[in-house]
Design a protein that fits this description.
It is a single chain. The chain has a domain of 31 residues. 53% of the residues lie in helices and 0% in strands. The chain contains four helices and no strands. It is rod-shaped and about 100 Å long.
Length: 110
C-alpha cells in the first residue's frame, strides 16, 4: 500500500512540475508577438488555458491527497508481528529436562 502511494506521489510531483512549467504567465502576451503564439492554437484559442489550468488543479489535488496519506501512514505505523508473537502460548509443548548423571555414563574409547 505504501509503495503504491509513493509511486503515485512521485509521478504526480513530476507531472505537476511539468504542467506548471508549460503554462504561460500573465506577462506571456509580449512573447506571443515574437513567434511563440502558435503554441496556443494546439488546444484552440482559449482551450489551452482551461485544459492546462484544470490539469494542474487535478495534479495539485492528487499531490495534496497523497501527501496527507503518506503523513497518516508514517504517524500510525502498523504493528508488525514476529514469528514468535504469532504462536499461541498454549500451543507450545514443554518437556522436562532430566539431568544425566556423569558417573554412570560410559566413556567413548579413544
Amino acid at each position: 500500500m505504501e509503495t503504491i502511494v509513493w509511486v503515485v506521489h512521485l509521478l504526480t510531483a513530476i507531472s505537476l512540475c511539468g504542467l506548471v512549467l508549460v503554462q504561460h504567465g500573465k506577462g506571456a502576451d509580449m512573447g506571443a508577438a515574437f513567434g511563440s503564439g502558435s503554441a496556443g492554437s494546439l488546444f484552440g484559442s482559449s482551450g489551452s488555458a482551461n485544459f492546462l489550468s484544470r490539469s494542474t488543479a487535478v495534479a495539485a489535488t492528487l499531490f495534496f491527497i497523497t501527501s496527507l496519506t503518506l503523513t497518516y501512514l508514517y504517524s500510525h505505523p502498523a504493528q508488525q508481528q514476529g514469528v514468535m508473537d504469532r504462536v499461541k502460548a498454549g500451543a507450545v509443548k514443554t518437556t522436562a529436562v532430566v539431568p544425566v548423571d556423569a558417573s554412570k555414563s560410559k566413556e567413548i574409547p579413544k
